[in-house]
Specification:
The protein contains 15 helices and no strands. The chain folds into 2 domains: 127 residues, no CATH class; 279 residues, no CATH class. By secondary structure, it is an all-alpha fold.
């Protein structure tokens, strides 16, 4: 390794290790200032930088000696030093080992830098620094979690990491049943549940009381329908808050367009080239109207917080899987027997129930060369998104106050007109 590495390369690797050590050390020293004054910091910025350089040097000495035992011996020695430091901290009543573990990781990141794994070393050190900085947020999340949240999260982990890998990856039967691949079906269930779960976690970390706009933004990532129903119901008898409620609802609907683009990008990336213009245009129109609503009523009081349930429960996940199978099969049958007209009609009907299922179905059908034409899939997805938005508009129409309806309709009409108008240009 050393024979092929010029001096400038070694300098670059040592420099990278130094910078990564400084990054972790700066975070630890900043955090130590916020702790109790009587607590002595395990290590500061310079010490962590030295740990990284020590790891890089040990890796080089191991390469020169032709034996990995040099690095192993050094790790053991450093481990003893860290253990003694921890013992002194424990005697003073400070039992945490976060800084000590960060020191080990910094040492190993330095070794990775010498071995040329700069991206991995940087990712390891940066991730460590981020986790160290999120102490308050992770504690807040732990306090907010309930027993149901933990059970649902563990269920999600088991079904994703244990069940998914062993499912068959081949379809069953002739067309149109050939699209029913168990692995792909459950992958879509995990995928869409994961997006909703991410939105739920963000709400728990940040808290919905940071503002109605943030509630609409993050709530739309979890469930735009839930945001619509909640604010529509609370708008009755609260005409003064019609604009903030409309602002939150439109933000949630905008997040639905963003979710569609993300889902398609991860399942069928080439299809995004046909979809991004109508969906992004609709989102921009909606955001422009949101900006007007915000400026028109930004000094009004903040609505009560919205409570979101954990989006990953086994029964709803199985329900989504069943719906996805039905829509996938119906869309493939409509494509084979009724052409584009049948496909679009089924997309509008399916979008009224769940835009995620029809989006993933269309993206999957358009992946193969002999499958659905990409342009037809893109039109079907946009029509499904428009249909879903109209259903949520119907929720506002039937449950919301008149003031909310008056505040909401310009943004609704503008975004839908742009999306549906541009779909015929695909």
């Amino acid at each position: 390794m050393l024979d092929d590495a010029p001096e400038i390369t070694l300098f670059y690797r040592y420099g990278s290790a130094l910078l990564l050590g400084l990054l972790v050390g700066l975070q630890r020293e900043f955090a130590s200032r916020r702790e109790a004054e009587e607590q002595i910091a395990f290590a500061g910025t310079r010490t962590y930088a030295l740990y990284a350089l020590l790891g890089c040097t040990a890796a080089q000495v191991s390469a020169l000696a032709g034996s990995a035992w040099v690095l192993v011996a050094l790790v053991l020695v450093v481990g003893l030093v860290i253990a003694q430091a921890y013992a002194r901290q424990a005697d003073q009543g400070h039992l945490g080992m976060t800084s000590e573990m960060a020191a080990f990781i910094t040492l190993l990141a330095g070794a990775l830098c010498f071995w040329g794994e700069l991206k991995l070393g940087a990712a390891l050190a940066v991730t460590t620094a981020v986790l160290l900085a999120l102490k308050l947020q992770t504690r807040s999340l732990a306090r907010r979690l309930t027993g149901e949240d933990l059970r649902a999260t563990l269920t999600f982990a088991v079904l994703t990491l244990v069940v998914l890998p062993v499912l068959p990856r081949e379809g069953f039967g002739p067309p149109p049943f050939d699209v029913l691949v168990p692995y792909k079906i459950w992958l879509m269930v995990v995928f869409i549940s994961g997006i909703s779960f991410l939105g739920y976690v963000l709400i728990q970390v940040v808290g919905p009381r940071r503002g109605v706009g943030l509630t609409g933004l993050l709530g739309g990532l979890a469930s735009s329908t839930a945001v619509t129903l909640s604010f529509a119901e609370r708008s009755r008898g609260a005409d003064a808050l019609a604009k903030p409620f409309a602002f939150a609802i439109l933000l949630a609907w905008t997040m639905m367009f963003v979710r569609v683009l993300i889902a398609v990008a991860l399942v069928n990336t080439p299809l995004v080239r046909l979809l991004w213009q109508p969906l992004l245009a609709a989102a921009l129109v909606s955001l422009a109207y949101c900006a007007w609503l915000y400026r028109a009523h930004r000094e009004d009081g903040e609505p009560d917080s919205q409570r979101f349930e954990n989006p990953f429960e086994l029964t709803p996940a199985l329900g989504f899987g069943a719906l996805y199978v039905v829509i996938l099969l119906a869309a493939n049958t409509a494509r084979l027997h009724f052409g584009a007209a049948g496909l679009y009609a089924s997309s509008i009907a399916a979008g009224a129930a769940d835009v995620d299922a029809i989006t993933l179905s269309m993206a999957e059908l358009a992946r193969s060369e002999d499958g659905l034409a990409p342009a037809s899939a893109a039109r079907a997805i946009v029509l499904a998104a428009a249909s879903n938005t109209l259903v949520k508009a119907g929720i506002v129409l039937t449950t919301g106050a008149d003031a909310l309806k008056r505040a909401l309709w310009p943004g609704l009409v503008g975004s839908l007109a742009v999306a549906v108008g541009m779909v015929f240009l695909i």
